[in-house]
């Protein structure tokens, strides 16, 4: 059985050692079927160690100091998260592991998650999660989405907009739903490299064959349909 946890965190800064998590959004997918989601808000001042709150890191999301103080304590949120993990994974079974999927998660979210486990006195991070992860940001880089489609950057919100995926950026659940959709597109929809080669021919006024023309048009239509279905799945 393939278990994946699409995970996104919002934090009080960029340093996992001195900054804390304020929101966690997750989608649990089992054998490519979305099972359920999990969302919690955390008061970073209730970590066991002192946390630094960088005002710019919360204010641009519209979050205030009062909002943070009104969130659940780190202990309460962590216990809820562990209870949820225990319902989908047996931490005592070495073969039962969850693979984390995120956007820029290898260098950001996972570090914060591991530090949250440590701060909470829980040594079982490796009992829940596989060391093999999927960073969708790396897939975007691999397929050269920014360059080939002339995008201004390769931020999650920009890639989501490129694929007509609605997103309220920097809200954990919105971000991770968008990440899930983008991953489905990049993984299952079509061969980006082949599409890019055909697109470059078109841009450079190089004649393409009828086969290439049909392939390009068909896959564009399928991509739009795929995104529509994904959006419909998450509507409301």
Provide an overview of this structure.
It is built from 11 helices and 5 strands, in the order E-E-E-H-H-H-E-H-H-E-H-H-H-H-H-H. The protein has helices spanning 55-59, 65-70, 74-88, 109-119, 125-128, 136-142, 145-148, 156-162, 172-188, 192-203, 210-234; strands at residues 3-11, 21-30, 33-41, 99-102, 134-135. By secondary structure, it is α/β, with parallel strands linked by helices. It is globular. The chain has 2 domains: 3-137, Nucleotidyltransferase, domain 5; 138-234, no CATH class. Strands 3-2-1-4-5 form a 5-stranded mixed sheet, sandwiched between helices. Strand 2 and strand 3 form a beta hairpin. The mean pLDDT is 89.
What attributes does this structure have?
236 residues; 2 domains; Nucleotidyltransferase, domain 5
Main sheet record: 5 strands, mixed
CATH class category label of the largest domain: Alpha Beta
Shape type: globular
CATH fold type of the largest domain: Nucleotidyltransferase, domain 5
Quick synopsis:
The model has no long low-confidence stretch (mean pLDDT 89). 48% of the residues lie in helices and 14% in strands.
């Amino acid at each position: 059985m393939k278990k994946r946890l699409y995970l996104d965190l919002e934090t009080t800064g960029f340093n996992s050692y001195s900054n804390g998590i304020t929101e966690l959004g997750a989608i649990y997918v089992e054998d490519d079927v979305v099972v359920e989601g999990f969302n919690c808000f955390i008061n970073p001042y209730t970590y066991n160690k002192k946390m630094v709150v960088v005002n710019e890191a919360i204010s641009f999301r519209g979050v205030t100091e009062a909002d943070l103080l009104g969130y659940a304590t780190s202990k309460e949120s962590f216990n809820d998260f562990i209870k949820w993990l225990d319902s989908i994974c047996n931490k005592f079974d070495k073969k039962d592991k969850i693979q984390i999927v995120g956007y820029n998660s290898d260098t950001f979210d996972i570090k914060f998650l591991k530090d949250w486990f440590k701060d909470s006195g829980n040594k079982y991070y490796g009992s829940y999660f596989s060391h093999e992860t999927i960073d969708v940001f790396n897939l975007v880089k691999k397929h050269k989405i920014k360059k080939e489609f002339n995008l201004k950057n390769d931020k999650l919100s920009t890639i989501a907009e490129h694929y007509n995926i609605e997103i309220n950026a920097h809200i954990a659940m919105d971000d991770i739903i968008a990440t899930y959709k983008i991953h489905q597109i990049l993984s299952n929809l079509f061969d980006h490299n082949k599409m890019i080669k055909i697109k470059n021919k078109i841009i450079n006024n190089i004649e393409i064959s009828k086969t290439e023309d049909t392939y390009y048009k068909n896959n564009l239509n399928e991509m739009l349909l795929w995104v529509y279905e994904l959006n419909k799945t998450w509507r409301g």
